[in-house]
């Protein structure tokens, strides 16, 4: 019995880490934008286009990925996807031209979004009973963050061992990720189950056109989608914070890379669970309310960043503001799908609702990167980053507006439920 439980948690670790780090090469710009421009020969605008190519393709693949998770062997799909992602990374390490990088990003979207996103979540879910789902999903998010953080710290350390002008530094980072993907793909083959068993409830919740139309008619779908949209815009903007510290405050490339690890990896591992604790132990029991409070803090922080960028005087202040923004952003990311359940979305359309909200909510992947890249290439640095912070402030307002609308809907549902019980 003990051996079986150990295997279950080892399987969860492999699934979680695979699902977490599989995106890191597609999002290599988050930590290594300057080296990508320097060694791969891309402009900031081209790097933005590379990122948006992945985002556009991903948007098209979220819903089909859910169908794949219901129809095909989890073991075969996850193993094949991780190994294929590793092989694509090896091609990426040759520093291909722009057209080839765009094709690689499309392929990354297929292996990570179509084949891994929904499959990894469902494979993890099947490891626990109905009563264990909260524990399983909580540990999955934590293990994802730990895996991403550990590998990122190691690759940055390897990167720092090279001379700043040595093009092999970035190549080594890419190859380490590629080898790790292939090793995890092999581990998935031996540990992950096929996952074919379906209950009647699961079969009924499979994607259908009728479900999609029903979901699209619900105003709460759009409220939740726009909350995710606003938070995800902040998440995309946050990825430029290392460039900001380097270009505006003169932070060294290695130091900025380590800041990127803290912001994009360490905070990811700890802030989501902390946001969940706030919904459990604070007076803000509602995930929607907690996100609303975080959006107000983000708005204030972004306005302050907009002001200090005009006359940068304190690196410590800039780092403090960015870390505060990172906390609110990652804590909100850990909560925004909980909003869907908070409005009592029927279980038979819950999966479809999550899929549609993902399509709408992750649209910032399509436009944020090329816009900011264009600003970086055509405007003075201070003006480019002031525009970026203002975009973030606008996204915070979007979150504030739609959390208010959703809270109103939640109160109306609660009042109707209380009245029905009273009757």
Structural features, described:
It is a single chain. The protein has 423 residues and is mainly alpha-helical. It is built from 18 helices and no strands. The protein is globular and about 70 Å long. 48% of the residues are buried. About 3% of the residues have low confidence.
The H-and-E topology, N to C, reads as HHHHHHHHHHHHHHHHHH
User: What's the helix count?
Assistant: 18
User: On the 0-100 scale, what is the average pLDDT?
Assistant: 83
Portion of residues within helices = over 70%
End-to-end Cα distance, whole Å, is 49 Å
Beta-strand content bin: under 5%
Give unreliable regions as ranges.
Answer: 197-207
Radius of gyration: 21 Å
The biggest sheet amounts to:
none
Overall strand count: 0
Structural class: mainly alpha
The rough form would be described as globular
List keywords for this structure.
423 residues; mainly alpha; 0% strand
Strand and helix map with partners:
Elements: H1 2-21, H2 29-40, H3 44-71, H4 74-92, H5 98-125, H6 133-160, H7 168-191, H8 200-204, H9 209-217, H10 219-238, H11 241-249, H12 253-281, H13 287-310, H14 315-333, H15 338-342, H16 350-361, H17 364-378, H18 381-422
Short description:
By secondary structure, the chain is mainly alpha-helical.
């Amino acid at each position: 019995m003990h051996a079986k439980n150990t295997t279950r948690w080892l399987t969860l670790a492999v699934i979680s880490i695979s699902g977490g780090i599989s995106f890191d090469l597609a999002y290599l710009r988050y930590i290594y934008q300057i080296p990508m421009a320097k060694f791969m020969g891309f402009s900031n605008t081209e790097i933005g286009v590379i990122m948006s190519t992945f985002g556009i393709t991903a948007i098209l693949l979220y819903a089909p990925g859910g169908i794949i998770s219901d129809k095909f062997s989890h073991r075969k799909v996850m193993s094949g996807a991780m190994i294929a992602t590793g092989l694509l990374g090896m091609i990426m390490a040759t520093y291909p031209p722009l057209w080839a990088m765009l094709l690689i990003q499309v392929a990354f979207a297929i292996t990570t979004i179509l084949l891994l996103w929904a499959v990894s979540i469902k494979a993890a879910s099947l490891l626990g009973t109905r009563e264990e789902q909260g524990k399983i999903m909580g540990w999955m998010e934590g293990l994802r963050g730990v895996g991403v953080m550990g590998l990122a710290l190691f690759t940055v350390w390897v990167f720092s061992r090279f001379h700043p002008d040595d093009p092999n530094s970035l190549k080594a980072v890419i190859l380490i990720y590629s080898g790790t993907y292939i090793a995890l793909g092999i581990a998935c083959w031996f540990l992950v189950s096929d996952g074919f068993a379906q209950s009647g409830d699961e079969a009924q919740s499979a994607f259908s056109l009728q479900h999609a139309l029903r979901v699209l008619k619900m105003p709460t779908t759009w409220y939740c989608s726009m909350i995710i949209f606003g938070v995800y815009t902040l998440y995309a903007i946050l990825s430029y914070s290392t460039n900001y510290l380097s270009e505006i405050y003169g932070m060294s490339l290695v130091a900025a890379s380590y800041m990127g690890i803290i912001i994009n990896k360490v905070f990811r591992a700890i802030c989501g669970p902390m946001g969940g604790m706030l919904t459990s132990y604070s007076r803000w029991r509602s995930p929607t309310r907690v996100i609303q409070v975080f959006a107000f803090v983000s708005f204030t922080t972004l306005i302050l960043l907009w002001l200090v960028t005009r006359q940068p005087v304190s690196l410590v202040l800039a780092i403090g503001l960015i870390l505060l923004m990172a906390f609110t952003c990652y804590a909100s990311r850990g909560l925004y799908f909980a909003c869907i359940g908070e409005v009592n979305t029927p279980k038979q359309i819950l999966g479809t609702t999550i899929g549609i909200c993902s399509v709408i909510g992750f649209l910032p992947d399509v436009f944020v990167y090329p816009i900011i890249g264009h600003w970086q290439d055509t405007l003075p640095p201070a003006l480019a980053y002031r525009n970026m912070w203002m975009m973030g402030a606008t996204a915070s307002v979007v979150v504030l507006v739609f959390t208010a609308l959703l809270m109103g809907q939640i109160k109306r549902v609660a009042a109707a439920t209380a009245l029905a019980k009273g009757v």
